[in-house]
Design brief:
heterotrimer; A mainly alpha; B mainly alpha; C alpha+beta; B: mainly alpha; two-stranded antiparallel ribbon; globular; C: alpha+beta; 2 domains; 5 strands
Chain lengths: 192, 220, 178
């Protein structure tokens, strides 16, 4: 069993969701244009990740495992995430309007964000306990937010830069992402 | 549009990966060998075909308020099915695709086609659409995986290419971003188009529900 | 009223139908492979020892004989022993190998499944010199060179081999006299 600190480091740096696991690329490329939207999306993803990890753990271990239908986990998890996102959206709108106006627009995008489903499945595959799952969720979300923030800074520079005509737009963004990913490679081996 | 045109549009003109910029996660993650690329592509095609058929059959039954969860459940069902089949028949591929096999569920291509095409069209055009889009995706994945495997590991479909100096970079995650960026740029050059400037809200299947995105400029 | 419950109702029906179908398919196609020498295992065994009759050792109550870190123990008619080991590489449980062990040390290693990064971690299988350094070793005191770019996979392989060696040393009599 891995220690909590090792899980934390891995989630944040070495096995970063965006740059080494390639999960959540769509929001990474789509939302990372401004620092403010990066922060909002990152916070929303972190929140949903932690809640999803907290909800799916008991469902997997108390319902799917005893019934021996663990192979239905993909269906169960995605349904939970979809319903949960809907629930959070409704609740937030009613109870916390300021928070809703900040994060609300990102919530519908999260259902189909593979980082959230990926996280819940990885928690099960790695046989993490409840506490470990939560820590992994929290720091994976923070890692996601961090990369989005860093990348929004990189992007504002790339937009200004004089790149060849065919590379303008998405190709240049992808190449900038490659360089960022390369720099995160420096963390590999940490915490193992 | 004729059924034939529904089929061919996905192959090149509206290629989901290279032109539509959908399904980026598997495109980057599993394309380390050509075999993985083609396996992932065909698995996605299978799920897309199945879900397009079922959703187009059920299009009048599913109420608008719950259509997204319904689509997701149907898609997840087919994903679980292909997972079982692959585990039984091609265990090595099952192992190397890992989590990304389950993550076909949230591949935007599938939900996007369900939402934009299958829910509005009859079965036969939906089948053609699924096959075209699926094979277009498979083609893009195989192309990208071939480049990465040849440059990074010096092999192609596991066959060694003699006297080839490899660059490990291409196998690493960074190489994925790099190769994809270059391929998209190349496609733009060849098709003489301006490269896509943004990955916009149109790629997001929840687009319909999220009109606020546009005003807020969140995902644009 | 009807329109209000129609949505959840349809969703419930679809969920139930999809799950039911999957459960049926799963039960119809599920084959229990524990305790059976599958084709993949047999190919691996023949790579190490050549063609022979192989049997997987069982406990008295019919369950598969396992040791710490060892998934199964397989012997052939000539009493040559191999251990099926699943170890962590870069990926969790990424290394699934058969290690043939005799009194003169490691006889051979064959790969059943390798979930490691293609082109990097998979070099532990594809670089023949890497596997060769394990052949003939008897205990965990040996010179070992990890592959560049495949540190975790190399370590995982070393762990797998050491696990097999340890099991052989500790349970030799038990296995041979079975």
């Amino acid at each position: 069993m891995k220690g909590l600190f090792a899980i934390m480091l891995a989630a944040l740096l070495t096995d970063n969701f965006v740059l080494s696991k390639f999960m959540g690329i769509c929001p990474f490329l789509g939302v990372s244009k401004k620092a403010s939207s990066s922060l909002g999306m990152g916070a929303a993803v972190t929140f949903v990740m932690v809640c999803a990890a907290a909800v799916t753990y008991p469902i997997y271990h108390l319902i799917l495992v005893p019934l021996e239908i663990t192979y239905l986990k993909t269906i169960a998890f995605i349904l939970i995430i979809a319903l949960f996102v809907q629930l959070v959206e409704t609740a937030m709108k009613k109870l916390m309007p300021p928070l809703y106006s900040a994060l609300g627009v990102y919530l519908p995008l999260i259902t189909t964000n593979c980082a959230v489903l990926g996280l819940t499945i990885l928690n099960i595959d790695n046989e993490y306990g409840f506490g470990q799952s939560l820590v992994n969720a929290l720091f994976s979300g923070l890692g996601f937010m961090m990369v989005l923030l860093i990348f929004s800074g990189v992007r504002s520079r790339v937009e200004e830069a004089d790149v060849p005509e065919t590379f303008k737009g998405v190709p240049a963004t992808l190449i900038a992402a490659a360089i960022l990913s390369l720099s995160f490679l420096g963390f590999s081996g940490l915490g193992n | 549009m004729s059924n034939y045109a529904e089929f061919t549009k996905g192959l090149i003109k509206e290629n989901p990966t290279l032109v539509g910029l959908l399904g980026m996660c598997p495109t980057l993650a599993v394309t380390t060998t050509a075999f993985n690329g083609i396996g992932m592509g065909l698995a996605t095609t299978f799920v897309l075909l199945g879900s397009n058929i079922v959703i187009s059959l059920l299009k009048n039954v599913i109420p608008k308020s719950v259509k997204l969860p319904c689509y997701i459940v149907i898609i997840a069902g087919f994903v679980t099915l292909i997972e079982m089949l692959m585990k039984g028949y091609i265990p090595s591929l099952y192992k190397s695709l890992g989590t990304f096999l389950s993550l076909i569920t949230v591949n935007c291509i599938i939900l996007g086609r369900a939402e934009m095409f299958a829910s509005k069209n009859r079965v036969l055009p939906s089948i053609m659409d699924a096959l075209g889009m699926g094979l277009g995706f498979t083609g893009a994945l195989t192309l990208m995986a071939s480049v990465r495997e040849i440059m990074g590991a010096g092999t192609w479909f596991g066959i060694k290419i003699p006297y080839f100096q490899t660059m490990t970079l291409f196998i690493l995650p960074a190489g994925g971003f790099f190769v994809l960026g270059c391929i998209i740029a190349l496609v733009n050059k060849l098709s003489d188009k301006k490269p896509p400037q943004e990955i916009g809200c149109s790629s997001c299947p929840a687009n319909g529900d999220c009109s606020s995105c546009h005003s807020e400029g969140g995902a644009r | 009223m009807l329109s209000k419950i129609k949505g959840p109702l349809v969703l419930t029906v679809i969920c139930t139908v999809v799950s039911a179908l999957l459960i049926i398919v799963y039960n119809a196609t599920y084959v229990d492979t524990t305790g059976v020498i599958t084709d993949a295992l047999l190919t691996g065994l023949e790579e190490i020892y050549g063609e022979d009759n192989y049997t997987m050792l069982k406990n008295e109550d019919g369950t598969v004989l396992t040791y710490e870190g060892i998934t199964s123990v397989i012997v052939n008619d000539k009493k040559q022993v191999s251990f099926e080991v699943i170890a962590n590489g870069y990926a969790k449980n990424g290394i699934h190998v058969l290690v043939g062990v005799s009194d003169s040390g490691v006889e051979g290693i064959s790969f059943i499944e390798l979930g490691e990064t293609p082109g990097l971690g998979t070099n532990v299988r594809d670089n023949t010199d890497f596997v060769k350094q394990f052949i003939g070793v008897r205990d965990d005191q040996y010179e070992f060179t990890a592959l560049t770019g495949a540190t975790f996979s190399s370590k995982g392989m070393k762990n797998a081999v050491n696990t097999a060696l340890r099991a052989y040393q500790e349970h030799r009599e038990e296995i041979i006299n079975e």
